[in-house]
Design goal:
The complex is a heterodimer of chains A (82) and B (421). By secondary structure, chain A is mainly beta. Chain A has 1 helix and 7 strands; from the N terminus they run ββαβββββ. In chain A, β1 and β2 form a beta hairpin. Chain A is globular. In chain B, 51% of the residues are buried. Classes of the chains: A mainly beta (82), B alpha/beta (421).
Chain lengths: 82, 421
């Protein structure tokens, strides 16, 4: 097994297993809401497979990344939109 | 460097796609598989890094031995010219791939039905929660209610139990009588029967309630409880996750974009899995939901046929036929009950991307009007979630599919528009 990976979510440092998705890190960091809907509701992952776009977050300044489909890479900076 | 033109390009690295890739590649054709996910296996064989589901291992080893290319983490967003697909990935941006024959094995997604509270964080698909757990989400000690319909609920419950979740109950909307008929029909498929029994046995201790479904999810900023109904009884079940999916629907968007004719259940194909578009084959769930064995058989047939070995393809016809019988039985057993149509209240959101309530689409006569007046189905998911839901609620079929199939960056769109055949 490769070494664990550490990233930050909203400035909070979180360590996850190698290969874990960004969605995992967001949840482990304690955030259930990944984004705000167009009317301001909190939303989190629904489909887990890249279809629904509810798990969108900002990764290294790139907006609207589907966190359930992108594996964590050491040092990533993730921001929720909630 | 001259651009690679794949003899057979496959979209989707699930069972159908992998089977197709192996059969095509053993014929000596240059083969590549594209998948939106970072790792092959599709949803059913989804796994963490460095480990693969038992069923996938042999196929992946064969694909590797036959030097099948794997284009991971890339999604097709347009078909800019015949024989070309435009893709976008997180790491590589926009690029294009050329092919002579194409096999679509784009699989299925869950059908979600709107009910009050279904948009709360931690209300997920059944397969959705499983996929997230396979992506590392810790579920140990979490209280999980699994609801909706279909054999997937059992598989998810088994996975959750194995990973230490406190599975409170499984709520299956189908009535007991329909399931009994289904289990009886499985006697024709001994291996499936054993699979089903094995799953149930491991579930000892988990309540499996038939004729039971969620009517509301509650919580302030995230899920705290789910209200369930069974017969005349309605009660609230505290939980951390609600894993809820009402069967599967095929991912038809790319096939539709390419102009493939549709049947009542998916893409229409001939006996060699060839669609109405020359050179475009379709295999697996996109021809109609049918499960693993059927997907493998269809994938093998498509792979062989696309590589010009139609005679050999005949050897898999029997397996496909058997798979189709199973699919029909499955479909009858887990048919969705009419009561589910009245779960959504006027103020319940049906379109989660654009926050459109049921009330707002109720006066519309169809998709066109709903889109024009409310933007329903026009957000990032492009009706992948609300489309099947509204089809069930109102009977509207999603009519048109246009590029981009997924949100793509402006740079990607410009590059794809400049593509020459």
């Amino acid at each position: 097994m490769a070494d664990p990976v550490t990233i930050t979510v909203n400035g909070r440092s979180v360590t996850v297993e190698s290969g874990a998705m960004v969605s995992t890190a967001v949840a482990v960091a304690g955030f259930a809401a990944f984004r705000r809907s167009v009317t301001g509701e909190p939303r989190g992952p629904l489909c887990g497979m890249g279809i629904c776009f509810e798990c969108r977050v900002t990764i290294d300044s790139r907006q609207h990344c589907r966190s359930c489909q992108i594996p964590c890479v050491e040092g990533m900076e993730v921001h929720t939109d909630a | 460097m001259p651009e690679t033109v794949y003899g057979v390009l496959i979209v989707g690295a699930g069972p159908a796609g992998l089977a197709a890739a192996c059969r095509a590649a053993e014929s000596g054709v240059r083969v590549a598989v594209v998948d939106d996910n970072p790792r092959p296996g599709g949803q059913i064989w989804r796994s963490g890094e460095g480990k693969f589901a038992a069923g996938a291992v042999a196929w992946l080893a064969t694909a590797e031995r036959l030097k099948v290319g794997f284009i991971a983490g890339a999604r097709v967003f347009a078909a800019p010219a015949p024989g070309r697909l435009a893709l976008e990935s997180f790491s590589k941006g926009e690029f294009e791939v050329s092919y002579r024959n194409l096999i679509l094995a784009t699989g299925a997604r869950e059908r979600f039905l709107p009910f009050p509270g279904w948009t709360l964080p931690n209300v997920m698909g059944a397969g959705g929660l499983q996929a997230l757990a396979k992506g590392g989400l810790p579920v140990e000690g979490k209280r999980v209610v699994i609801a909706g319909s279909g054999p997937l609920l059992l598989a998810v419950a088994k996975y959750m139990k194995e990973h230490g979740a406190d599975v409170r109950l499984i709520a299956e909307q189908a009535p007991r009588a329909a399931l009994n008929r289904f289990v009886f029909s499985l006697a024709m498929h001994p291996e499936k029967f054993i699979q089903a029994i094995g799953l149930r046995a491991q579930l000892l201790g988990v309540r499996y309630l038939t004729g039971c479904w969620p009517v509301a999810a509650g919580g302030k900023d995230k899920l705290e409880s789910v209200t369930l109904r069974r017969g005349s009884k309605t009660w609230s079940e505290p939980c951390d996750y609600l894993a809820c999916g009402f069967g599967l629907v095929p991912n038809l968007e790319l096939a539709a974009l390419l102009g493939c004719r549709m049947s009542a259940t998916g893409v229409e194909v001939d006996e060699y899995q060839l669609s109405s578009v020359p050179g475009v084959y379709c295999a697996g769930e996109i021809t109609g939901i049918g499960g693993l064995e059927l997907s493998l058989a269809e994938g093998e047939i498509a792979g062989l046929a696309a590589a010009g070995r139609v005679e050999t393809a005949h050897t898999r016809f029997h397996a496909r036929e058997s798979g189709r019988h199973f699919a029909t039985a499955l479909d009858h057993a887990f048919a969705l009950r009419a009561e589910l149509r009245s779960l959504a209240q006027p103020e319940t959101l049906v379109c989660r991307c654009e926050d459109v309530t049921l009330a707002r689409i109720q006066s519309c006569r169809g998709w066109r009007e709903a889109k024009l007046h409310t933007r329903c189905g026009m957000g990032p998911c492009q009706a992948r979630v609300c489309g099947p839901a509204i089809e069930f609620l109102r009977g509207w079929k999603v009519e048109s599919v246009r590029p981009p199939l997924f949100p793509a960056s402006v740079e990607s769109l410009i590059k794809a528009s400049r593509s020459t055949p």
